[in-house]
Amino acid sequence: MSELSHNLGRSTFGNPVNSGNVLSEQEALELLNSWVENERLRLHMKQVGAVMKAWALEREALSEEEAYKWWLAGLLHDADWEKYPNDHCRIIIEELENRNIDPAIIHCIASHGPSYFGVEPQSSMDKMIYVFDELSGFIHAAALIRPLRYDGMDIKSIQKKLKTPSFAAQVSRDDIQDAISRIPTELDEIIDFVIQHQREVS
Ligand SMILES: [Fe+2]
Fold this sequence. Notes:
Blueprint: H1 25-35, H2 39-58, H3 64-76, H4 90-98, H5 103-110, H6 114-117, H7 124-144, H8 155-162, H9 173-181, H10 187-198
Helix pairs in contact: 2-3, 2-7, 2-10, 3-5, 4-5, 5-7, 7-9, 7-10, 8-10
The chain binds fe (ii) ion (FE2).
Fe (ii) ion binds at residues 44, 48, 77-78, 133.
């Protein structure tokens, strides 16, 4: 994706009357499984969903009902990436708008790459999907090259890999820095949280 090539050209999504409307877990997984064939991409979306939900519950002290929205946004944020690479984000947004889903969830999905989609993260849900998206994939890439995967993985080794441009070169270090600069939490703490919470996701 090149910068702004996927600009959505708008900053409001969905309809406020749909606040509180969600897809059921079954509907969400059906959408994921029918739109995304690539196992690795599916896993990435499930990992971002799991980390988002855990953050909502543990760090934002939100209810299960609110945390479910964080999970849903994480789970579906790349749903259209494989089938519609040229219209990534626009298609899943329109799908969720057509299904009358809560605008906060749709705005969150639209916020996962400000330099691509032209949408500024506003809520903490928006800011955290931007933080977790690239880092989650990066940390999983680091786990895949370790015999023990996540076991014994430490923050330092991830920081070192972030400073090694050739490792997972497609992951934008600039986006990670930009995302972290928008929240009050340090990068080390985020890395630790991701390591602890996405290891069990399969
Ligand atoms: Fe992603």
